[in-house]
Structures are given as C-alpha cells and as structure tokens.
C-alpha cells in the first residue's frame, strides 16, 4: 500500500528524476528500510556458481549503477545485488531524455548508455557500505573504446573489481552502446571470452580465490546464435549465463507513443521472449552452465516460470519499479514453493 502511494507520486515526475529520488528516499529511511523487506530463511538458500545465495531473488544491474545504495537495497530482502554496468572511465551516458515509462504495458524503454562514475569510484562506494552479502559487478566498455579494443576495457574492470566482487557479470548485450552487441557474434565472443577467462585464472592464482564469471546476453538472438553462445560458454568454462537483457523489439507496444524511441524495452513485454531464450539455453546446456533468469518478472508466478524454464536464480528490475518491495517477497515465496 505504501509503495503504491509513493509510486503514484513518483510517476508524476520525469522517470530519471523519480529513479534518483526514490533511491535517495529509501536511503534516508536508514534501518527502517528493513520494515519493507523479508527476513532470512535458511530454506531458501541456493548454491549457484559455487556461491551460497541466501535466497534466489536478486537485483539486476542498472538499478544501482554506482553502488551508492547497497545497504538500503539489501535490507529489502534481495539474495544478491548486481551493480553497474560500470566502465573503466566515468562517462555521462546518452543525452536526455533517455528513460521512458510505458505504464499501461508495465514496461520501460531506456537508452541510458552506461552512464556511471567509473570503476574506481564504484569501488570506493562499495567499501563505504556495510553490505557484505553476495555482490555482482556488471562490467562493460566505454562508449569511445573501439570494438577491436573492447577486451582491454573488460580486462581493466575485471582487474579492478576482482578482489571485492563475489562474481563478475560481463555485459555484451546492451543495445545502448554502439556496436556492443556485435560482441555476441561467435568469432568476437570466442576471442573475448578467451581473454577474460585467461585473466580471471591469473587473478585467481594471485588472490587464491576463484571468482565466478557470468555473461549477460540479449533476447534478440536466433537459434544459431544461441547454440554458438552455449557452445562457447562450455568451451571457456563460463560460470553462468544471465538471460536476458532488454530487447530492441517492440512487440506488444507498437502503438504506444514511446514505441519509436530508441533503446531497450524491459518489463512485461519482454517476459515471453526472454523466458524462451532461457528455455532454449537450458536445453542446449543440459545443466553444464547455470542460468540466471531476468526479464519481465512482475509476479511470483513469473519468477516460478523462469525457474521452470531453467533458471537457478532470478533478478528483478522493471518489475521492482512497478511493484516495489512486495514483489521481492512474492517471488521468494513462489520459488520456495516450487
């Protein structure tokens, strides 16, 4: 009820302004934030990618790009938090406006463009937080780094975050950085994963601890592309695949006044296609690589459907904006009962 009232007020504001205001207001509640969350329940624990997650419902990257709100977000009952996408150097992202609500479709279109404070500042924010739960750091390349040098940016971020991250997510699927999705092609992905995994192994030897590495993919992939990604994930011993990012398609929202806006579509309209990608990957991988399901989860039943399609964990973003903290508890209950 409280969140529904707050949402009514927030939705009167520009979406990006509302996003920042909501996070700051949540941080201002301090310990009271925990009143909105669900407590720990040992019956919900999952071990995935070698990590013990207190529950299978996490926060997707994009909500807390700069790791500024770890403590209040953790208090809401998430089993893990994924911050970023972060790049080696700070960058402002794409020009505003770049975030659009499609309220009647429970959807969002964004073309943020990896706006973030850079990896060094993100790590300072992480160190200031009391949070010591499961932390994923989602890494990407700067917009002005040529695609042929993309690996340099990913390696720089991996080097920087390795000691502090519980796992690292490699974002090669945002539609909002020019040509980034080209990294999903078989040849380029093969080269990138070889470089990243070699560096991960070197970092693991130095640190005495292996940090899992997951790759986040797009929903707009055909069967041949999915088969290639599955093959490369096994070949390079990738620890997890996150399916999926936002879609460049507009199925189901074609007549909306924001449909022509460039960017990735998330929320309810992406649920079916992202879940189908998850299901196909599950069949291709047959349990060899864990899957994390994200895209269009707005109810507990949606979370359960992701699990039934092959996801070991799920992540929320747009659904959390529309439903608030109640969705976290609902998804956790649905997955515990599954």
Write a concise synopsis of the structure shown.
By secondary structure, the protein is an alpha/beta fold. The protein has helices spanning 2-10, 15-28, 70-74, 119-128, 150-161, 186-207, 223-235, 271-285, 300-308, 318-323, 325-337; strands at 46-48, 51-53, 57-59, 80-86, 99-102, 107-110, 135-139, 167-171, 213-217, 240-243, 264-267, 291-294, 313-316.
State the assembly state of the protein chains.
single chain
SS field, number of helical segments: 11
**Structural class computed from helices and strand pairing:** alpha/beta
Q: Sheet bearing the most strands, described? A: 8 strands, parallel, barrel
Q: Specify the CATH class.
A: Alpha Beta
Major sheet strand order: 3-4-7-8-9-10-12-13
Any idea how many domains? 1
> CATH H-level name... which superfamily?
Aldolase class I
Report the principal-axis shape: globular
Task: Annotate the secondary structure layout.
Elements (H helix, E strand, L loop, with lengths): L1 H9 L4 H14 L17 E3 L2 E3 L3 E3 L10 H5 L5 E7 L12 E4 L4 E4 L8 H10 L6 E5 L10 H12 L5 E5 L14 H22 L5 E5 L5 H13 L4 E4 L20 E4 L3 H15 L5 E4 L5 H9 L4 E4 L1 H6 L1 H13 L1
Parallel strand pairs: 3-4, 3-13, 4-7, 7-8, 8-9, 9-10, 10-12, 12-13
Antiparallel strand pairs: 1-2, 5-6, 6-11
Helix pairs in contact: 5-6, 6-7, 7-8, 8-9, 9-11
How would you sum up this structure, described in words?
The chain is an alpha/beta fold and about 350 residues long. It has a single domain, classed as Alpha-Beta Barrel (TIM Barrel), CATH 3.20.20. It has eleven helices and 13 strands. It has helices at about 1-10, 15-30, 70-75, 120-130, 150-160, 185-205, 225-235, 270-285, 300-310, 320-325, 325-335; strands at about 45-50, 50-55, 55-60, 80-85, 100, 105-110, 135-140, 165-170, 215, 240-245, 265, 290-295, 315. The strands form three sheets. Strands 3-4-7-8-9-10-12-13 form an eight-stranded parallel beta barrel, surrounded by four helices. A three-stranded antiparallel β-sheet has the order 5-6-11, with no helix packed on it. The longest helix has 22 residues, at about 185-205. It starts with a helix and ends with a helix. The mean pLDDT is about 95.
């Amino acid at each position: 009820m409280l969140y529904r009232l707050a949402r009514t007020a927030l939705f009167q504001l520009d979406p990006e302004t509302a996003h920042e205001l909501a996070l700051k207001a949540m941080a201002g509640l301090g310990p009271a934030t925990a009143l909105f969350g669900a407590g720990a329940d040992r019956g919900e624990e999952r071990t995935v990618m070698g990590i013990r997650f207190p529950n299978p419902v996490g926060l997707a990257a994009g909500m807390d790009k700069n790791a500024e709100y770890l403590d209040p977000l953790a208090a809401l009952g998430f089993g893990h938090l994924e911050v970023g996408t972060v790049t080696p150097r700070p960058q402002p992202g794409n020009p505003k406006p770049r975030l659009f609500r499609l309220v009647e479709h429970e959807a969002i279109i964004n073309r943020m463009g990896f706006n973030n404070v850079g990896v060094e500042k993100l790590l300072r924010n992480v160190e200031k937080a009391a949070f010591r739960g499961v932390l994923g750091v989602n890494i990407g390349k700067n917009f002005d780094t040529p695609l042929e040098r993309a690996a340099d940016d990913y390696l720089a971020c991996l080097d920087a975050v390795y000691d502090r991250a519980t796992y690292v997510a490699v974002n090669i699927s945002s539609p909002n950085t020019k040509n980034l999705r080209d990294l999903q092609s078989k040849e380029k992905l093969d080269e990138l994963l070889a470089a990243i995994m070699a560096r991960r192994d070197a970092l693991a030897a130095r640190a005495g601890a292996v940090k899992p590495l997951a790759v986040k993919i797009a929903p707009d992939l055909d069967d041949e592309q999915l088969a290639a990604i599955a093959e490369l994930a096994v070949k390079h011993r990738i620890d997890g695949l996150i399916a999926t990012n936002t879609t460049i398609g507009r199925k189901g929202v074609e007549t909306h006044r924001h449909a022509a806006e460039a960017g990735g579509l998330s929320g309810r309209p992406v649920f079916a296609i992202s879940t189908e990608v998850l299901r196909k990957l599950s069949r291709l991988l047959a349990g060899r690589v864990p899957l994390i399901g994200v895209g269009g989860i707005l109810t507990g039943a949606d979370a359960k459907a992701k699990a039934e399609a092959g996801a070991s964990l799920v992540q929320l973003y747009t659904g959390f904006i529309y439903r608030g903290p109640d969705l976290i508890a609902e998804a956790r209950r649905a997955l515990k009962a599954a």
